[in-house]
Design a protein that fits this description.
The chain has 230 residues and is mainly alpha-helical. 53% of the residues lie in helices and 8% in strands. Helix 3 packs across helix 4 and helix 7 packs antiparallel against helix 8.
């Protein structure tokens, strides 16, 4: 948790529009993960501000509202810990544990995006897109094994899917990769279709820097997450 109201306020500033701080740091909600039996304690206002899913749970006359306890099934404890880190400090990389943007893995970032997508936390989804692209500018991430996972864990219109398609196109020889006997079984069929349509229907990005400059194209914006500053 934050050590001061100032640090919490600063971490929130660039993520989305926000209500007064006193509305964010109100009562504490208990989050229980099953089957891991891990427990987290988070300010209700912070959860409800960023997530419509948690807001629905806590604002309607449901069991969660009455007891102040939310039980979540099949959430990975490490990924949820990163979610909590983002809520309070605006990041999912644990610098105090010695983690850096170079050492955090593509799978860890994808896991965070999928959690944010499932719990409807668009500001965190945008942050993950930015972080993934920052990481890719210095060391293009390994995509092996992630395509099928992403395509089976996200909706058809997912912004993360669009980003991965553009990354694949940017990498180069798609035909050779799809013909590789060692790789062909790792691709979801709908992913292959998406990549081929993207490659031959529209101009591809020419560099990692260009992809990063256009990162807002992969963001989600609404009344709480305003458009990026140009």
């Amino acid at each position: 948790m934050c050590t001061s109201n100032q640090s919490l306020s600063t971490s929130m500033a660039a993520q989305s529009t926000k209500p007064p701080l006193r509305q964010l740091v109100d009562e504490i909600v208990t989050i229980k993960l099953e089957p891991s039996n891990k427990t987290f304690y988070i300010h209700k206002g912070l959860l409800c501000h960023h997530s419509s899913v948690f807001r629905t749970m806590m604002e309607h006359d449901w069991k969660e509202k009455q007891e102040g306890i939310v039980t979540l099934k099949d959430e990975d404890p490490e990924t949820f810990q990163r979610f909590m880190l983002w809520l309070y400090f605006g990041k999912v990389i644990d610098n105090e544990a010695g983690e850096t943007i170079e050492t955090v893995t593509a799978r860890q970032l994808v896991d965070c995006y999928i959690l944010a997508d499932r719990r409807d936390v668009p500001a965190m989804q945008n942050y993950i897109i930015n972080t993934y692209l920052r990481k890719s500018r210095t060391a293009p991430p390994l995509l092996h094994g992630l395509q099928r996972y992403i395509w089976r864990s996200t909706p058809e219109q997912s912004h993360l899917r669009r980003l991965f398609v553009d990354i694949m196109v940017l990498r180069g020889d798609i035909a050779a990769e799809f013909k590789d006997e060692n790789e062909k079984d790792t691709y979801d069929k709908s992913y292959i279709v998406d990549v081929l349509i993207r490659k031959y229907a529209t101009p591809k990005p020419i560099s990692w820097d260009e992809l990063y400059k256009k990162r807002c194209d992969y963001h989600i914006h609404n009344e709480k997450v305003p458009p990026c500053l140009k």
